[in-house]
């Protein structure tokens, strides 16, 4: 039965890139995407296979901390559902709250935690772990690179429509008239930031595989993945590539020259340096830097085009002329006609947190400096804080305002903080901080247990650290199962190897 579990885990994790294809996620089936439903079924099957092994039931009965955690999670979920149901806000639709969506989200949020536990006791073989990571790297990276070269890739900065890129990577060096969002490529996949975080996460493992199995196939896989991360045109993809290459280089030298528990390999070192040098040479031409230079002048151009100074005077005059309801109606009409001059994000002001419901909030935003108005992540956080504080429910800080509301108002691109608004402080600790706890557990044993100081375990720790950093920095990670299930598989494999090192039964010694 353990063999069946290992085989199922192998294929279940390996198919995640296929479930991340753009068109499978749109339109949703009964508000739930088909990939999410398949993932729930997949984890359910893994649970059945796992507990079909008698020893696993006996072990769980002795693990009181796991049982306590499960009981606490169930109790939290019940309290969360009751708390978010009693919500009042300025939006008459309650910001699209749905109890069904909320329950499904709670189930979905538990899936990676289950995969961590199952993988950690699955005795998953290292060589098969390598093959899964190689397959994920190849499927994502080759798709991005090939679709970019033949100009049929979807652009990285569109998720509401399937819009293709305008030119391939060669235009980066020869033409400058393309906007950044016409060149950044995500292949045929859904969310570029999520994909960037996945590739950032698996890069140290791919480099470890290259070190252990130095051959042409792995050189090509790592090189193509590096190119794909640049083509994505995201900060996590581009900066993450350089960061991962440099940090792994330092880690390799630390293990081989200082700890001396890893055999030094000149050919691996030269290859790694060559990939780093090539990546650094291409980096300045990437869409990421074009985006930064473009955004700096956006607000000023819009202000000049719409004659912002004249509008400011007109607005002040109108607000003084009218009082009460007439003033509110005047303000609404002004915002509707001129929001673009103030560089307000149209979907935020017109839909997600409509000026019709809270015009005086948007008046306050229009009076802020251009840099603040263009900082959409900070603006989204500001809106969520306003919604949470406007509600009279004192339990919001503990249980959140619900995932469905948070997602409909302003899906915050900063994980952990996004979960705080949707699930509250308790939900954030139970459902997301737990990943940091697992990583911290691994770091602790790496520090105190000599047998844990292997290059493999160091690579797994880097992998977990990279994706959690990406989650906090750019968001769009912890809400996407395509990322969290692979992360859970890696963290589970980390715990397995930590356990082996404690009993001197470790799979890879170097």
TrEMBL record:
What's the superkingdom here?
Bacteria
GO MF annotation list: ligase activity
Question: What UniProt keywords apply to this chain's record, in alphabetical order?
Answer: Ligase, Membrane, Transmembrane, Transmembrane helix
Q: Which Pfam families match?
A: O-antigen_lig (PF13425)
Membrane-spanning intervals of the chain: 7-24, 36-53, 65-83, 103-121, 128-151, 188-209, 216-233, 239-259, 266-285, 420-448, 455-474, 480-500
Keyword Ligase on entry: yes
Tell me the protein's name: O-antigen ligase family protein
Source organism per UniProt: Lactobacillus gasseri
Q: What is the lineage of its organism?
A: Bacteria, Bacillati, Bacillota, Bacilli, Lactobacillales
């Amino acid at each position: 039965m353990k063999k069946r579990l290992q085989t199922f885990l192998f294929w279940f994790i390996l198919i995640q890139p296929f479930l991340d294809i753009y068109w499978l996620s749109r339109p949703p089936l009964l508000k739930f995407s088909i990939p999410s439903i398949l993932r729930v079924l997949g984890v359910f099957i893994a649970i059945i296979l796992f507990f079909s092994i008698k020893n696993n039931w006996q072990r769980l009965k002795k693990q009181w901390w796991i049982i306590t955690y499960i009981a606490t999670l169930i109790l939290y979920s019940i309290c969360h559902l009751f708390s978010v149901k009693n919500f009042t806000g300025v939006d008459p639709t309650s910001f699209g709250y749905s109890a069904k969506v909320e329950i499904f989200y709670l189930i979905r949020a538990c899936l990676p935690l289950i995969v961590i536990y199952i993988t950690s006791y699955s005795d998953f073989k290292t060589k098969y772990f390598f093959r899964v990571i190689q397959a994920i790297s190849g499927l994502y990276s080759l798709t991005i690179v090939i679709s970019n070269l033949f100009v049929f890739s979807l652009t990285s900065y569109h998720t509401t429509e399937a819009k293709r890129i305008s030119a391939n990577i060669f235009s980066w060096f020869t033409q400058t008239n393309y906007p950044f969002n016409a060149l950044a490529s995500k292949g045929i996949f859904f969310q570029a930031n999520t994909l960037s975080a996945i590739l950032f996460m698996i890069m140290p493992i791919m480099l470890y595989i290259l070190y252990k199995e130095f051959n042409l196939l792995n050189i090509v896989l790592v090189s193509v993945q590096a190119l794909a991360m640049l083509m994505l045109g995201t900060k996590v993809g581009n900066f993450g590539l350089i960061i991962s290459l440099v940090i792994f280089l330092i880690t390799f030298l630390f293990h081989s020259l200082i700890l001396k528990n890893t055999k030094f390999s000149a050919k691996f070192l030269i290859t790694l340096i060559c990939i780093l040098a090539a990546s650094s040479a291409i980096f300045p031409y990437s869409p990421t830097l074009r985006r930064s230079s473009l955004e700096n002048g956006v607000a000023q151009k819009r202000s000049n085009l719409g004659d912002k100074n004249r509008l400011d005077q007109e607005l002040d005059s109108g607000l003084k002329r009218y009082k009460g309801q007439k003033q509110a109606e005047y303000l609404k009409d002004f915002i509707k006609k001129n929001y673009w001059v103030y560089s307000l994000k149209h979907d935020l002001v017109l839909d997600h947190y409509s000026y019709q419901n809270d015009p005086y909030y948007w008046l306050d935003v229009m009076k802020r400096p251009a840099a603040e108005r263009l900082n959409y992540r900070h603006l989204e956080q500001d809106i969520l804080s306003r919604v949470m504080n406007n509600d009279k429910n004192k339990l919001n800080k503990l249980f959140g305002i619900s995932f469905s509301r948070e997602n409909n108002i302003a899906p915050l691109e900063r994980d952990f903080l996004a979960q705080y608004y949707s699930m509250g402080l308790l939900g954030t600790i139970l459902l997301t901080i737990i990943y940091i706890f697992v990583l911290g557990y691994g770091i602790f044993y790496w520090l105190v247990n000599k047998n844990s100081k292997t290059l493999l375990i160091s690579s797994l720790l880097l992998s977990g650290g990279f994706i959690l950093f990406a989650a906090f920095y750019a968001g769009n990670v912890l809400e996407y199962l395509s990322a969290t299930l692979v992360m859970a598989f890696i963290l589970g494999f980390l715990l397995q190897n930590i356990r082996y090192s404690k009993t001197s039964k470790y799979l890879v010694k170097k």
